Batch of 2 targets.
Target 1
Amino acid sequence: MRYIFNRLVHAFFLLVGVSFLSFLFTTMAPGNYFDEMSLNPQISPETVAALRTQYGVDRPVLVRYGRWVASIAHGDLGFSFAYGSPAAPLLWARARNTLLLTSVATILTWLIALPLGIWSAENRGRLPDIAVTSATGLLLVIPDLLLALGLLLLAVRTGWFPTGGMVSVGFETLSSIGKMRDAILHMALPVTVLVLSALPILVRHVRAAMSEVLGAGYLRAAQAHGISRRTLLYRYALPAASHPLISLFGFSVGTLLSGSLIVEVVMSWPGLGPLLLEAILARDLYVVIGGVMLSTVFLVAGNLIADLILYWVDPRIRVA
Amino acid sequence: MNEVHPILEVEALVKCYASRRGAGHSGRANAVDGVSLSIAPATTLALVGESGSGKSTLAFCVACLEKPTSGRIWWNGLEVSLLTEKDLRPNRSRVQMIFQDPASAMNPRWTASQIVAEPLVIQNQLTRRDQFEHAQLLLERVGLPASAGARRLAEFSGGQRQRIAIARALALGSKLLILDEALSALDCSVQAQIANLLLDLQESSGISLLFITHDLVMAAHLADQVAVMDRGRIVEAGTADEVIRHPEHEQTRMLLAASSGLGRVTPESRDA
């Protein structure tokens, strides 16, 4: 309990620190939304000045930070100048789409990486291992941007997949099976890019963790007792190799909101990525900070989850 | 006529590892190079050799934990070198192995009775309750207190851990135990205790031992037959007495000189 409490306090201070720093840095960046606005000849300087006072952008940093924190208490996360509405609902609507995409991709990645890494470790130095290692090596050197563009090209040329968005026009009119099919087709390409870019690292970690454990004497002994291959690998070796994998899982959870931003922009997935890109270009300050904060919350929470799982599976951590 | 099979028979066993691309070495190195041996029921064969002589590789092949390159192996008349891994599994109870380092050969997070019951769980023998009762009996049989079962591996000394390993190896009622340098990591007095435990077990339940060591004197103390290994081959074999009193091969003399010997080193071996 004490351990959990300590971790929570730690996480809280981390969030406060990140929020203050991201606030500070974004306000230190040159220019703001109203500077852009005052370049527009159709808007009178008086209007811009009035808006400036209304949103309080000329007040000292600490005052603005205080107001922003207060707005969190209301569940607003500040105000979007561009959309003229509180930032939180905007962010949340987009974050849901991002989460849909990334959680499907993350689950798929793990489901593929675990057996593949184990298979590779089991056949270490032999053909399957060499094949897996070379394939992941190849994937590792291809930037995901290139992968995304390549798949888009494929989609355009073949017409098998839609080239962007979450659903087709007229989605509402489709039957429920048709809706499902449509959603899966739209998701297929971005998910593929995300899986292929996350896979090599994960496979290699699984392989490394398993190879280390597979040399252990007690697995040899279990083999001598006549254990089956599947039980040996999945019930004996995998739990023993789980430490680094649990940490990695925490990281996977942590990057659910921030790992797909570029892919979303390239493949026009209506998630956080395009929203944040627009917000950054338009100097829509609070939306940017809100996006950073949401990602940070996920990252901290992911690590916290990993720590808690480790605490739960390994009695040694409880003692230390 | 009812023929009595040897507990273990090995014929022309060869194991070679593809050698890594390295300095000067071309082709392949034979870790075990045509070894034949056999062990009669309720007897002990000691396999003695320097490190690197191939004795551990031989042990792993005999226990079917490594696949030999060629050669045949029988466990109590069953030719296991012909079996697939799957067909071998139920027969694994015939032969058990005890490793050099008991700490790594057992799961450190488990209790002693979990460890000892593990082979029964794997082979799906007995009910859950009987498995643990059996484990308790085995722990007592190897000289551990009745309270030992509930303790975790970390709470035991090296000698006690090796006792637990022996109890685990006995769990399936194997007729042959392979001990791969099983005493080497222990200090002298504990070595003697475990050696005596093994002799007692052999007397009471008629198991055979394949005792692998670099210590020729210890080997002669425990074994009926001694075989000396050098560079993958058996270079000298005979009864323990013969080998230790009249060592023929140079390797044997060297091992004798290097042995932990309790004043039994012969004068000529000292010169070697």
Target 2
Amino acid sequence: MIRIERLKKAFGTKEVLGDITLTIKKGEIFTLIGPSGSGKTTLIRLIDLLDTLTSGAIIFDGIDTSAPEKGRLAIRRRMSMVFQKPAVLNTTVAENVAFGLKFRGVPEAEARGRVEKALDLVGLADLAGRRAVTLSGGEMQRVALARAMVTEPEVLLLDEPTANLDPVSSEMIEDLIVRINRKFGTTIVLSTHDMIQGQRLADRIGVIMGGRLVQVGSSAEIFYQPKGKEIARFVGIDPITGGRVIENTGGHALIRVGTTCFEALTDLPAGKRAALVIRPEEVSLFPADTAREKSSVRNQFTGRITRILPSGPFVRVSVDSGFILVALITRRSCTELGLAVGTHVIAGVKATAIHLIPDQE
Amino acid sequence: MSEIITGIGQAINLIVTFDPEVMHIAALSIYISLSATIIAALIAIPMGSLIHFHDFRGKRALIILIQTLYSVPTVVVGLVIYLLISRSGPLGFFGLLFTPSGMILGQTVLIIPIMMGLVISALSGIDRSISDTLVSLGATRLQEIVEIVKEARFAIMSAVVLGFGRAIAEVGVAMMIGGNIRDQTRVLTTAITLETGMGNFALSIALGIILLIVALIVVVALNLITASGMSEDVQKIAGGPHG
């Protein structure tokens, strides 16, 4: 649907996006995740043809978008965008939703029906006559969504649509996004700094960091097999660095970190430096007196608990075994195991749960 | 003090009896200043929009020049227009000197800068996200400009009201271009000057009160227009079709 080739964007001498190549498929939900200021908004604005790129190309449905303004307008009218901070004009909700239709010269009678439908979709039919500026943030964002959908776009672009909203409104917007995608087959490109949201919504995820697209893949790939340490940290894992592959027989490898040896599955040959990425939810904890042989878990380390951090219904437990392993366990298990800072435990990780990243240092 | 009280009494008397001369002076004041306001608005709103929506070299300097002209003395405008339309001036053949038309011309020139400047700041007050939204919704450049002007309608109306205020309250242009000729170019401000000079303080106060009442009526009327059908008017002024 959209093909981006070697795209670069600079403001003055400052390059904000560099060498981005990406294809967005028809009908998918594609999420751009990355920290604030990494260039997500810039990329989405470029896709919506609100700004011009410095070099490279954006091909929309086979059409090069570097056309003169008239051609760009025609392409832009096949898309819609919802901004992070919704801007409503000082008119009624219905008039706000009708703008796209008015610009396209849709007859008023037909427009009225379509506006009604769009407002119905976002559950705001009752507020059609209200002045839009009096709405709450969540309602405004829903108006923005209705306004974007009323023109039946082929591509819907959403720039951090829930960044300024409370959890209830966020959930409502997320539900709507998925419903729109399923019901109308609209291709959706969404940016967010909330990686969990990206994971919830996306068919595919692209990670942008420092203006570069550093990884594209399914949410499982991004979250379990991040390509670099920075990406790992962004998706919530602090990688264990300083490892070296000391043996690899048919993909089954031994990695030494300090005085400890890990078993893991990897293609990295012996001698390579590597960082280990272990998702906290893959780490299990046992009381220190458990007989090791009883468990099928290959990697087991005795360590001392250095920190216990509540995280919703879970707790993040940091275990120091010469390196720091973080385990995410339920509050209940934490209590049942009688864990506290200073307690000795055995931390276990399956060989299949360890992902290795080549490490330069 | 007694003059003020007498003046108020006299004002009420002149108003309720529809004193023909006072009514004529008041009507001429409204006619001249309102005409100047309408003509100035028809020039200042499109010109202000043109300046706001285009980037060009010297834009900043032009805006500073316009803002400087807010405080141009009325007598300076009067002098310049006088020189232009006097019999020997370049526009002398129109015979505008000492006519209401000449006064309208002078007041129009006087209030264009302040209206244009305030139109520009009214449009600058519309957040950039509004124009982004309009463009992303598929607006052409013209559709975008029309919607932004409509969005700024209240601030633009204030610019127009302020222009009217400056026009009806000024005395320099009216005196120099109109000449304060009885029954022909005498307006409220020039009449007040004259009557005060002759020591008729009570009549001056009466005329001053009438001036304020006239201003009140016009401002209320303009506000009512803004509240109702203003959006359509602005659209016509901006010269854009609906969709």
